[in-house]
# Entry
Amino acid sequence: MSAIDLYNTPSPNHAAKVADSIALLQRAAAEYPRLTQASSLGAEDMVVTHLTHLAGIASGIFVLDTGKLHAETLALVHQIEQRYTRSVEVYRPKNEAVVKFVRQNGEEAMYQSMDLRKACCDIRKMEPLARALTGKDGWITGLRREQSNARAEVADIVQETGSFGSRAKISPLVEWTWGDVWHFIATHQLNYNALHDQFYPSIGCAPCTRAISVGEDFRAGRWWWEDQSAKECGLHVQPATSSLLPVAENAAP
Ligand code: SF4
# Structure
């Protein structure tokens, strides 16, 4: 069975969610002209890329190629460029930092301790992310509240201030269910990561991602050897200081 066969179960108000997400992106683009999408190339981010296309906004799009991604994930970069006739910016870690880290700690350092895992994420994700966001006043993500307890309070637009500087973070899918995501993918015939058909709902680097079993949590396949309450790499744990939209326009309940 494909992921579409398994998960295509839209919410009753799916069409309204799509319209709200497009409207949110258009408002964000008007307020933040230097806008970019951070794409992990997962199912949600393929939806967000298509929503930006439907919204007609001129945002950029970038991918963090950690050097540890699956071939199935990287294949989507070319597919996005072909379908939307646009360039995907690919940011990679600094080679000297990777070489030094691997020489000191080995290729499988992430399994040795959480500190080493986070150090690997810092080198391969966080530093390239900081470069990708330089000069941007807003970034778009595919975060959904349903994804994990840590994301249950995510707002659709927040102002972040932290080590990456200050900018808006726009998450048009906060209200979407996993069924909404797959209904949209099916309806619009979007490309998606082939690993989703092999029980990988959440896909990151190859050494840190595994398939999940029936009944397991959505993110159980990410850093599965660690404390289950700490499944973030740092990209989405920046402090949020204030909503940029009036309360009535912010979907946070
Ligand atoms: S997810 Fe794993 S391989 Fe990827 S940067 Fe983090 S620790 Fe390294």
User: Anything to note?
Assistant: The two ends are 35 Å apart (CA to CA). The helical segments are 3-7, 14-31, 43-55, 71-84, 95-105, 114-133, 178-187. DSSP finds seven helices and seven strands in the chain.
